[in-house]
Amino acid sequence: MRAAEDVALARTTEGALMQRAAFGLATHAARMLAERTGGVAGRRVGLLVGAGDNGGDALWAGAYLRRRGVAVTAVLLVPDRAHPAGLAALRRAGGRTAAALPDVDLVLDGIVGLSGRGPLRPDAARHVDALRAPVIAVDSPSGVDPDTGTVDGPAVTAAVTVTFGARKPVHVLNPGRCGDVHVVDLGLHLGEPDLRVLTAAEVGACWPVPDAGSDKYSQGVVGVAAGSADYPGAAVLATGGAVLATSGLVRFAGTAADVVRARWPEVVATGSVADAGRVQAWVVGPGIGTGSAGRALLEHVLGEGVPVCADADAITLLSQHPGIADARDPGTPLVLTPHDREFERLTGAAPGPDRAAAARDAAARFGAVVLLKGNTTLVAAPDGRVFANPARSAWAATAGSGDVLTGVVGALLASGLEPAAAAATAVHAHELAADLAARAGTATGAPAPSSVLQGALPDAIRAMRAVRGWRG
Predict the structure, then answer these.
(1) Is residue 214 located within the same domain as residue 277?
(2) How many domains does the chain contain in total?
(3) Rounded CA separation 81/93 (Å)
(4) Residues of the domain holding 107
(5) 337-376 pLDDT per residue, tens
(6) Is CB count within 10 Å lower at the N or C end of the chain?
(7) Residues 101, 104, 105, 111: what is their CA dihedral angle, to the nearest 10 degrees?
């Protein structure tokens, strides 16, 4: 962003870029005032102003709001380092400064910008703690790390964040602190992004849709090796995820074959992977156990020469017996789907504050796509690409939910989607299904169990296809 801004600054008059950003910020602030209070003129806005350009953005935005009849009061947290041109503009427009904010309708957080690291300093934290009005963060919420989204102490929680040029990592890694994010276009020429967020239209366009020449084999045949006598539910859930993700044919192999067949009669179920027949991708791990039988099962699947999605017990086995991975042809796609504790077992270290970097490093180390689960789930490819999926809610955090996700990933791998795209697409659909299931259950007030999430998958897929214009 700094490099792109430097290029833009070199071809514009001094201060023009900041004023363009501030005008966009003021426009969003006026809109928020109108939505929340019914008007703009006569309303009251407070500015928390730190040193540097972030404070300058807030001061210039305050000047624009004054011109619309808004009473604007600024608290200068570092008076001798306040942006001089912005402060002069605010004063010319009739804005004032004070030692503390009065009762206001809205606050602009211009304390620190993208260069800020660590929690708020005590004086700033005191002012933030006293706020009772909603906050618009300027570029990113102060006190929240802009690169990792981590919070190590006092920090701003914004109702809205107005950022400039493009979204920053914090906006997808910690959406709860950012609120609704709006981007003001500054006409910057940007390079490749550090993180990618798929839209519903992009996901819908990726999803396999049968045509007149399709049959059950051409739409993707996925094998599911999951569950056991102790954990038959894992088999049912992983298989169901594959079925409902519109896989052409699902083959199940394991001791839970009878249970799976009773729940999903369309599945071809056998007791052993050796008898499963040909597949185009395998799902392995949920509920298989970490003993010798589970190890033999994982080795067999990895040796089949087709894409594999390894989850749960399969990840534990890979961490306990690194040599198992030698059964896999180096060119065979592998998707690993750990949560934080599994990630630590697999790599020897917790993801830490920079989850995107940790996932990227693990993907390069294992030559696999790493799907690191969390409120913002990250999908890292060995080539360095990272997809982020910020959750709409936390309803997917239920027992068995990960088994469903694994089945969806397997179905998309079998359809021929590139592994990172398959994983990122599956995450989007899975999280949307959880949100739809939770909304459907609001009448009872009960959370959405994985079985309800599983039942919402077709609705999620239909919703995404509708966004991209599919009708069927």
Answers:
(1) yes
(2) 2
(3) 20
(4) 2-184
(5) 999 999 999 999 999 999 999 999 999 999 999 999 999 9
(6) C
(7) -10
